[in-house]
Structures are given as C-alpha cells and as structure tokens.
Amino acid sequence: MNTHSLLLKMSCLAIAICTAQSSFADQPWSQDRQWLLGDWNGQRQQLEKDGYKFTAAMMSQSATNLDGGYNDDNAFKNAAQLALGANFDLEKIAGWKNTTANILITKRDGNALTLDRIKDPRSSALGNSQEIYGRGKIWRLTQAWVKTGFADNTVQFKIGRMGMSDDFNGSQCEFQNLLLCGGQLGKSIGSIWYNLPVGLWGTNIKYQFAPEWTLGVGVYEINPDNTKTDKDSDGFNLDMDHVKGATIPVELAWRPKLAAFNGLAGEYKVGALYSTAEANDIATAGKIHDGKHSFWLNTQQQLTQKDGDPKRGLFASFNAVINDKATTAVQSTQQLAFWYRGAFDSRPNDSIGLGVANYLVNDRYKDRQIATNTSRGYDQYDALAADYVPVQRDELNVELNYTYQWSPAVMLRPNLQYIHQPAGVKEVDDAWVAGLSMRVNF
Question: What residue range is the signal peptide (predicted)?
Fold first, then answer.
C-alpha cells in the first residue's frame, strides 16, 4: 500500500469521527463515551467503586516527511503501543489503609520516520518525530508495584517493577515529538534511566513535609537485560543476574498556587541523580569512571483560567537536563512548551500546543568524532563513505499541534514538526514532518 493510500485512509477515519452525529450518543464513537467498549452493563463503574480499575489503550503515531531530511523521498511510518493494565485499591479490597497496587503490560510495534528518512543513518539518533517508538517490538511487564502511605499519607513508600519517570523527572506530554513529551532524562541517558515501556526493580519514598513541599528519593537497578530488544528478549525477565549498579535520584517538588498567576496551580521540581555503574569516558577510549551524574529542572504552571474552569486556560512548561560531561554524549536538553486547553466553548477539552526543544551535544564527544574522521583521512562531510562519522552538534525540534478530544475514549492529534539539524548534523537538510497521533481507550 502506498503512502497516499495510507494517508487517505487515516484522513477518512479522522473525518468520520469528527463528523459523526450526536444522535449516535449510545454508540462506541459517541462524544460522551468513557470507554470504547462501554461500561459492561454498569459492571465497570461498579468494579471501580469496589477498588478494581482496568485499563486498555492503544496509541498510534504516524508521520510522513514533507521536505528535507537526509532522504527526501516521501515515506509514511506508523508506530503503536498497546497498554493493558489494572489498578487495585487495597484499602477497599483488603482494608490496607492508603495502599494501592498496579500492573501494566505493554507491546510496541511499527517503524520510525526519523530513522528511515530524517537523520543520517550513520549517526546515533537524538530526537524522534514519534515518541512512542523505541525499546523494541516485544511484550513487556512495564509495571508491577505496590504503594502505601504512612503518617496521614504524608509519607509514601513504593516498591516493585516500574519506570523511573513514573516518580522522578516526570512532565506533561501534550506532543508527538520525543523531546517534547514527558521526562527528558531517558532521552539523553537511556543506558541508566529507563522510562515506559521498560520496567525495572526499584523503590522510592516521598515525604510531604509541608503542604506545598515534597522530597523524594529512589533506588533503581541498572540492568542491561531490561533494555534488550531482539526477538529472543524476555520483557518479563525478573532476575537481577546482570545488575551493573544502581541509579539513585533525589527530587524536591514545590506545588504552590501563585498570586502572580491569580492563585493558579503550578509544579516546580529540581532533582539530581548518581549512577553507581561504571561508565566509559565519552572522549578517551579505555578510560573508565566510577559513576555518572545528572541534574534536572521541571516546571509547569497554569497561566490563565477560562470561565472559572481550572481545566481550561493557558498552560506552560519548561524542562531542562544537564548531564555529566565526562561520560554523556548529550550534554544538556531544554524544552519550552505552551498549550491552551478549552479555547472554544464548543470544544472545552481540546487544546492547541506549541513546543520547542533542543539537544546539545557534548563538545568532547564532537571533538572525538572529528578526530576519528581526521585519522581516516576526512576533513569535511562525506555523504557516501561508510566509515565516515557524521559530526553531531545540536538538534532543534519544534511542534505545532491541535488535540481533538472527541470523547474520553478517543483522541486525535494532528501535528506539524520542524527539525533543525537532524541528529545534530549540520550538513543534513532541515526537515518538515506531518504527524497524527491517535489514542483509544477501550
């Protein structure tokens, strides 16, 4: 099937959803449908009241290159993720006060336009126009944890299998572009920081020592087995036979209602981590460091409110990461995003988003690439030589999107992305990408 045929089918699906009539309010595509497969004759809501909440969701992200990139031949790529989960309120079920348990199984599939068309194939990837892509096309046990609260729930303890950004360096995701979606650490230090869908053994404790302040600390395994992606990989592997060390994050969170923004809520977090696993020096072959570290800042603030509705108005976020210069190829990342939710009274749950994000490559890493090319006899970019190493600098990502929340069960997000210096290689043409995200809650 060619690109235009696939795009036409996606467009037809979007138009069909958007133009459906309200007379079908009891149908799966109705605008008040909480779940696509319905409420199971009322049993689903009753189960939630009893402490059993089941989830099933499919996320699809498609992208096509409009102009630029390493290969400007038009292509259409789709990536997808299936997530099946259950949450158990153990206070309702077993009388365990302030205790919940969660399990989540995921399966990813599909392909990435960035890898196929946008970046030089000889370069390591930085950004991705489809954030859902990555970590292999295998089934994974992504979450299996228990969390309990003490001291009037001001202290919360969590243990089990989980992703790190579930509890640290977390951020809002209103975009399809990788660096504009969620926590940033996994995008630059993925060898020690694992986000969804990867699950790993870990534990953390958070202490709310004042109404607006919380301090958290965690300990997570560094186990390469968790990130294997070949067809023989076991996404349900629970052993710790090949653990190389631990990642220890610490984060301070402040959640005020600022007078400067008419008492609107925000969240401001600063954090740091230390990895105890040995790390290779990024510039000197054979040099080993005892560990590595990173620092981060996450901020999110509602700037305006529309018609007294706290869910509507203008929101902003700024996120930044600074990595260990001795051991990390990406020295820092920065992200600034704005989204306005409920701009139209007829569409109170829709939003318009604009985000800008940047990867900054470590100068030491860049100098090593230049030295490698010099040793091979290259003094300038060679588009054809297989052994030429493209020199990476920084990559800028921009996305403009509209989130169409047809119902609680169905979301569509058409978007336009601009990538400056794909994979940080200045010789590769800037790229324009059109994308479409779709999420369905079953």
Answer: 1-25
Task: Kindly report, residue by residue over 332-387, the tens digit of the pLDDT.
Answer: 999 999 999 999 999 999 999 999 999 999 999 999 999 999 999 999 999 999 99
At 165, the amino acid letter reads S
Total number of domains constituting the chain? 1
Torsions phi, psi of 333, nearest 5? -135, 150
Measured distance CA(91)–CA(98) in Å, rounded: 6
Q: Which two tokens stand for residue 186?
A: 């996994």
Question: Which class for 231: exposed (0-12), middle (13-18), buried (19 or more C-beta within 10 A)?
Answer: exposed
> Which structure tokens are listed for 401?
């999107």
Residue with tokens 């009274």: 345
Q: What is the CATH number for 415?
A: 2.40.160.180
Determine the 3-state secondary structure of 168 from DSSP: coil
Cα 217 to Cα 74, 132, 190, 198, 251: the distances in Å are: 47, 27, 20, 20, 6
Q: What pTM, to 2 d.p., does this model score?
A: 0.91
3-state secondary structure of 179: helix
Torsion sign, CA atoms 341, 346, 349, 354:
negative
Whether 175 contacts 355, CB under 8 Å: yes
